[in-house]
Amino acid sequence: MSTPTRPGGRKPSVRPARTTEPGRPAGPPAGTGRGPAATSAAAKAHTVKAVGTTAAPRTPEPERQPPEGLRARLRRGWVFLEGSDRTPSGSSYYLILGSALALTAIGLMMVLSASSVEAISEGKDTFDLFLKQAVWAGAGLVLMLVLSRLGPRAYKALAWPSLAIAVVLLILVLVIGVEINGNKNWIQIGSQTFQPSEPTKLALALWFAAVLERKKALIRDWKHAMIPALPFGGLPIGLVLIGGDLGTGLVLMMIAGAALFFAGAPMKLFSLAGLAALAGSLVMVATSSNRGGRISAWLGLNCDDGADLCLQSDNGLFAMASGGWFGVGIGQSRQKWNWIPEAHNDFIFAIIGEEFGLLGTLVVILLFGILAVATIRVALRYTDPFVRILMGSILVWLIGQAFVNIGMVTGLLPVIGVPLPFISYGGSALTFTLAAVGVLLSFARKTPHAPVAGSPAPSATSRRDPARP
Fold first, then answer.
1. Axis-axis angle for helices 267-286, 246-263 (nearest 10)
2. pLDDT tens per residue, range 390-405
3. What is the pTM of this model?
């Protein structure tokens, strides 16, 4: 077949098709002399199929989603435990963890130092109480690790069951419990004793945070504050007081008061509660010779006959005075040779002062201060009232109990049998103190984004990479 020719016998020139880069529209052929207007007109001509009709956009078919596998279900459950709106935290996490571990290590060392002499005098193994405390410390560290992986929603789900279990245990104490030094606050399990009032502290903090968070603005009405607090929150406190443990009852009252304070309860409620607590404490002191004798010893009214109640507090002061600035050396305490009753428990701070001096006691106080400051830093990053109430309650529990113990050792407060957190001998107390630290770590490990002043919260699209389409 012959190629048609133009007039004049010349064949038409055939130009090769022009290639373009992927994703760019083809431009006008070279040498045609067409401008942008001609190009746009040609592009419009290709989009119009007929007069008055345009090409309808195609709706993409929905992609088939594969069935949810085991990994996806586990990830969804992990989000429930951790919380998905939090980001990794900074130094506060390590400050809380480091101070708690340092205090625990100091406690194990001092329990060994303070209890070895009494164990030898009683014909027991030198490491008996130390090994028991170390086992409880290991259990507390495991529980701390587990609780540090949970999130706010998981803690809310545990609030009511934990309070119910605590109440059942406290009732068992009154039925089958063991009485020690006038307080019925222990359950004998073989050769070990368990103190249910220690897990009650954590359970009460969880319950108050969950209930008061749901009240929100209604908490400013004293009736709404009293309705959940008095019947349910006051039940474990009453059971502990029935057992005769006034010191632990006061710590539980501090936890309840802290929860109401951080929830925003009216101040007049605290005035009425304080008066009621004072009246109840006076009644308990008047009805117990042991508690009455402790108050009299604190006031110096029965110290002329060398009674044991005065002997404990006086020798505690002697121990701290003999320690001086730098102490007499680890293991070299003289007052622990049966001069101070419960030297490894309530008065272990006096042994620290004697063996490590004033500097050693200041180190312990500094570690509690670091724990408090780091906890406050984390709590201030949250706007969730549940987190703030729970962290505030645990903070008042740990720091308030430490203040009471140090106050009674130094003579500022009467001796009411409150141990020093992390340090005093007591397995259940150490375990659930570390568990409370695990709750603090769960909020410190991942904290919300710190909002920048004057800037809106970042949206989902603003967090995308600007280089991606």
1. 180
2. 999 999 999 999 999 9
3. 0.75
